[in-house]
Structure formats: structure tokens, C-alpha cells
Amino acid sequence: MISSSTFIKMQRLISDKNVLISSHGYDELAEDGIFVTDILNSIKEAIVVEDYPNAFKGPSILLLQQDRDSNPIHTVWGIPKGKNEPAVLITAYVPDPLKWDDTFTRRYNDA
Questions:
Q1: What span, in angstroms and rounded, lies between the C-alpha atoms of 43 and 77?
Q2: Which are the contacts of 70, defined by CB distance < 8 A and separation ≥ 6?
Q3: Residue 89, Cβ neighbours under 10 Å: how many?
Q4: Which domains does the chain have, with CATH numbers?
Q5: Cα(62)–Cα(92) distance, rounded to whole angstroms?
Q6: 71-96: pLDDT as tens digits
Q7: Is the peptide bond between 53 and the residue preceding it cis, with omega within 30 degrees of 0?
């Protein structure tokens, strides 16, 4: 498991309900039938898949979370560059098992 200060910040902001969902995030949630409550409720058990502390638009992180039926969900959270808040849900989707290993934490090579 990746240790991440970005993840710790995200958990704190989400716990404090300091959250914004991007319009793209809403579209992706609807497309894959993902409930916001599932994402918010599973943040404590989330697993860091990839951490981007120096991303151009601000620190962001790819997490593996679960829905209410324990199905995998990938979420991408960010904090706007130069800011300390809010936690922004950038996107969420059901990962494609053909592109990820059985744990949904490692991508298969495109080669």
C-alpha cells in the first residue's frame, strides 16, 4: 500500500464534509450507477493506487474504493492548485477488469 500525505489530506477534508463534485464527476457517477454515499462512506477503507502530489492542477490521487455491494470503484480526488480545500471528486468509475489486475491496483501494460 502506498503511503500518501495527499490521501491523509483527502480523508480529513471528506470527513469534514469539505467536498465538491466536478460536473465530469457527476456524469461519470451517473454513467456507472455509482452512489456518492458509497464513495463518501468507504473513504476510510480506500486504498491508494496512484498518488500525484505535484500534478499540474494540484495534488490528486487515484483510490480503490468499494460500493455498498463490495464491488470495486476507482475514484480520482484532487485539491485545487494553491489551495488547501476542498476535496474535489474529479471522476469515479467501475474499473475495467481487462485493464487492471485482480486487485484493481495495478494496470496491465498496453504493449
A1: 11
A2: none
A3: 24
A4: 5-93 (3.30.2310)
A5: 9
A6: 999 999 999 999 999 999 999 999 99
A7: no
Q: C-alpha angle with apex 90: 88 to 93, nearest 5 degrees? A: 130
Residues in the chain: 111
Instruction: Tell me if the pTM is above 0.85.
Output: yes
Residue 59: cis peptide before it, omega within 30 degrees of 0: no
C-alpha closest to that of 18 among 43, 1, 35: 43
Q: Which residue reads 460536473 in cell numbers?
A: 23
Q: What burial letters (b/e) apply to 15-46, b meaning 16+ CB within 10 Å?
A: eeeebebeeebeebbeeeebeeebbeebbeeb
Are 7 and 51 in contact, with CB atoms under 8 Å apart? yes
